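Step 1: inspect the first sequence and its tokens.
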Amino acid sequence: MSGKKARGRANRAKRGAAAVQPGTQQVDNSHEATGTLTHNPGRLTRAQLVDTLKGFIENALEGIKHASDLWVASEFAGDVAALTAAAERGDMKAQVAMIIMSRSGREGQDWFRKAEAQGNMNALLWLALFIVYQYLCAMDEGLEREAIQVEAMYQYLCAMDEGLKREAVKERAMTQLRVPADCGSSTAQHALGMLMYVSQYSADTKSDLLDAARWIRKAAMQGVMDAQYELGEMFRHGVFCDHIYMRFARKYIRRASVQGHVEAIARMKDLRSCVMCGADSASLACSLCRQARYCSSTCSGKHWCEGGGVGGGLSGGAGARHKVTCPRTHTRV
């Protein structure tokens, strides 16, 4: 037997023995460092997630409305009668414009039924986003009921029915979102995933959040920067999995930052800082895991042996000695 093979067997035997001794822990090297929801100070609160989703939906609704207004102005020059006739003939863009312009819940309901029967995905997306937005607004206990009834489409959603339960609105919102999401709408996919995330925020098991992450990932793969950032943060905090995957976190957050996502840009700056002293644009990285970044070999050696770092972007936390938390080391003592 060659010396290299013999040393390999001896090292594996030592690691196996160390794994069963008190005070040691054997870690599977196929994953990056472990992390759980029990100690996750950087993770957004449920209220912050709600605000994030509300902001995304507000922008999406405004974008749909703006595009519709521009189309109506260019095609009909303010001729409502001609627009109505086009909608009656089955023009999908005209139907969306009529739904947005509806002055009463009854009128909006009629136009939506026509659009739904025709399979108008843009109309379904508009209504689904509107339902989700109103549900999120209703989650604010300090919001007066009259304040969420002023919108005509919310009247269509039976908000005037005092017996309507909040959970019923949420279930209807998810049902409405699934249709355009299944048809490939990245906006619907991200909204649906985030709504699931908000609903399951305090789930006992991380697997309950796996479906939410899957929908968000579908939107991220289509280039939605909000989805890319949220997915990166979910990987960074180990929200839906048993491990913290910093490599994937960096990957998705970087994609969002390239598109100009403000929070992603700030997060990438944090992830590129020196773990030990916090200096910006640290050019060196741990030769083993490539996660921990340092501004100098001095900081690297000190953090490896002593810990006490202040930077971010590191599995296991910056304060611990890196030789204990490095994902590529095999034995934790």
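Step 2: inspect the second sequence and its tokens, then contrast the two.
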Amino acid sequence: MKRNILFMTCCIGLMLFASCKKDPVAPTVTPIQGEQYLHEGSQVYADDSVTIGFTATGEKLTRLETTLTQNGNILSSYPETIEQLATYTTSYPITIDATGTVTITCTVTDAVGQTASTSFNVIVNEKPNAKFVGHYEGNALATGWMEAEITGMGIDPIQDEFTDREVPVVVDIVAGEGLYEVVATCTIEDRTMTATGTVEGDNITFETFNDVITMEYDMGYMTIQPEINVSYTVVATLNGDQLMLEGSCTGQGDMNYGFVSGNLSMEATIGGSLTKTR
């Protein structure tokens, strides 16, 4: 009889102990607040360095993973291993190369497989200068005149008027330091020069840039090659993969060859379309 009572007492004790055993605490995860951290509705520029941060709590946390998705596609993932901690905070810089709405989701897992997640959306904008970055090739058309006023040995002035003269042009554009700045390397025929520009919408207004053109005149008894210093003023408009050029150029130069001297002048309007090839 005593044995039965003892047995029943043990069973009741075990049942009470089991009923008092607490369930594992579910983990939680929340974004870190602060202006320097991404949060719901943040607007950033593609390829800029931005900061994400999260704090997780629970029992024996083992893993935290942050995932960036867009339209159901994973853009990037940042997994981290946690050494069974009750609290874990993480933050680090990332870059987002997509544009549009991107969802950032952070999921934390504990030692018994319980998980918790938090998500928010950010807007990633294309940098104003990024759409212009690329390599463009084509012909510019020049219309204008070039004149040489020559003195000495009875030589008549030289005049050259031209309409829609084709000039091969190659332009490589890279992003400038500011959001609205670009830097272009421009090759006209065999001459290369650098120009900086400011973006406004689909247009780039380039600062005036300079060129040196070597002319060649057959004087009969000799050939002379005077140089003319040229300044370009150009606006470029992006239309799809076409970079439309519009502007003008002016130039002045001197020549002094023995008994021959004179002044060189030129003016022209320029325009044309270059195709983006890469």
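Step 3: confirm your contrast with the notes below.
The helical segments are 2-20. The two ends are 94 Å apart (CA to CA).
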